[in-house]
Amino acid sequence: MKYWYSQPGDGNDVFFGSEIRLTRNLSEFPFPCRLGTAAKTTINRVIYRALSEIIPELNYCTTEELPPVNAVALCERLAISADFTSVPGGAALVINSDESFTARLCYADHLRMYFRSPGCSLSEIFQNADLTDDRLNSILGFAFDKNLGFLTENPANLGTGMRASYIMHLPCISITDKTARLTANLEKLGIILRPIDGEGMDGSSYLYRLSNRITMGIDEKSAISNLESLAMQIATLERSCREGNDEFRRQIDDAYEYFNTAETVSYEDAAERLALIRCDTPSDKIPVINSLMLSTKPANMICIDTNLADKLLRDRTRAQIIKDNILH
After folding, report:
1. Is 161 left (phi over 0), alpha (psi -120 to 50) or beta?
2. Which of 241, 256, 284 is the last residue of a domain?
3. Contact 92, 63 (CB under 8 A)
4. Could you list the residue range(s) of the whole structural domain that residue 279 is in?
């Protein structure tokens, strides 16, 4: 299966991917927190039909229909959050084949749409997201106030209802202990930097989500422009940290040696060492490393082969998969 992150992208040495999230509610219905399961199911079907008119080859399932191991695998692939399947009855997921588009229905809001693409591509994604949003609004009628903007269950999302994110690969900034100060400085500018591994997963892949916090008093294009400017500065810092760093080079070499000799590889060891090797990988080969970073996570391996529920067998298989893909 070819997922969105296994495709080439601009600036992919630092930019793992880009994402736009749009939060919307239908004007004729209360927020999901005030609805029963039957009403949520009705709304979900209405939204799914509208989405299917715009986006091809979508799949639909309720949270109750989603097997736990598949839910964890989706979380590992950054398609849903760790808490998505724990919401009260009535929530549903809409997803396309490469997971570049997902929608969570009657989760906290009636609709949360996610548009994803590899590399540094927020402006391009927003064009697609904006067109889809306009077409859906003409069909569904979103709740909107001329003063507050799009109405959302959480007041923090009022206004544009948009969260724009870059998923950035920042191993050298992390290893040289620059993340705490960087995070604090960004917070003052209304920008959030947090580790992806903090979103319900273990391990240290050195992937961070850089996103806007402010949704009121600023339009979408300005928010994206501000975020892009800061992301470029962070990317420059990461690249300069890597350049001529002998200790960092040694850690990369150690990662290659580890995979060359290891007969078993835990997910935690794979995550950190693949992240280091990614820094030594040519741009056209980075999609291979991206795929390894996510496909060798536990639930994804179990979904491919249920025998890999056995941890020892899974660790042996992971070691061989990595050797086959990066050492030959």
Report:
1. left
2. 241
3. yes
4. 246-326
CA angle 202/189/236 to nearest 5° reads 65
Phi–psi pair at 117, nearest 5 degrees: -155, 150
- pLDDT tens over the chain, length 328 residues: 689 999 999 999 999 999 999 999 999 999 999 999 999 999 999 999 999 999 999 999 999 999 999 999 999 999 998 888 777 789 999 999 999 999 999 999 999 999 999 999 999 999 999 999 999 999 999 999 999 999 999 999 999 999 999 999 999 999 988 999 999 999 999 999 999 975 444 448 999 999 999 999 999 999 999 999 999 999 999 999 999 899 999 999 999 999 999 999 999 999 999 999 999 999 999 999 999 999 999 999 999 999 999 999 999 999 999 999 997 5
pTM: 0.95
Q: Do 159 and 35 sit in the same domain of this protein?
A: yes
Domain total in the chain: 2
Residue with tokens 């086959």: 324
